[in-house]
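ok posting inputs for the citrulline job
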Amino acid sequence: MRRPAPSVVNGLRADDRGSPDFAKLQEEHDAYVAALTAAGVAVQILAADDAFPDSVFVEDPALVYAEGAILLRPGAASRRGEVEKIKPALSENFPTVLEISANGFAEGGDILNTPRTVMIGLSSRTDKTGAQSAVTCLKKLGREAEVVQTPAGVLHFKTDCSLLDEETILTTRRLAASGVFKEYKTVTVPDGEEAAANALRVNDVVFLGSHFPRTRELLDTRGYAVVALDTREIGLVDAGLSCMSLRWRS
Ligand code: CIR
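and the output
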């Protein structure tokens, strides 16, 4: 993880619904760190970097697995410098650090790991060259990947989905409609709660935004151990629960 910098209030967003309150956003981040720790994760937190407003969203410039890390290339020009900034922490933690082609773009928010495959969603941030190059790097790490499509107007593939367990995906209706999850069981978030789809499974618990009561009920009914976390401030800069960490099993 990386601490949020004061400049996060200027983070990228598709629609301006007002800027986040920095103090409240810090509280959300602190709660996220505490929840990951409580879920049994050993947490490493990098220093805030005010030069990059979106640098708290460490999921986007890299991909990590026990076998190695892959440096990506954010499609958002203002985020491209985050890659160099995260590189030292990756070199410290991983025996192998690969890089995608300098001709393409890919952001981690577009990449969903499932037990079957790695799904890479094309989006306004991830292009075909970047996705194909990520597929090649993933092969080197022994992982099969497939390139899929993010729905039009959706920031990242994972804006609209997350893995709930080995075979079940939490998804929006619009993403499920593309047929991309036909090999999986799915739970569809209720209309109006689309942002709840960016949940995060960590060990035995599922982190879910705290302001999605109908999705909460769906997950409770299905027996998931839900941990509710406030995401209203990061939501103002189009972020959700997966984007504030890079996670791997060592
Ligand atoms: C951006 O637009 O890049 C940031 N404001 C939000 C990034 C969210 N990333 C993620 O969900 N992986």
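notes: Residues 11-13, 54, 57, 59-60, 76, 79, 108-109, 156, 237-240, 242-243 surround citrulline (CB under 6 Å). The chain has a mean pLDDT of 98.
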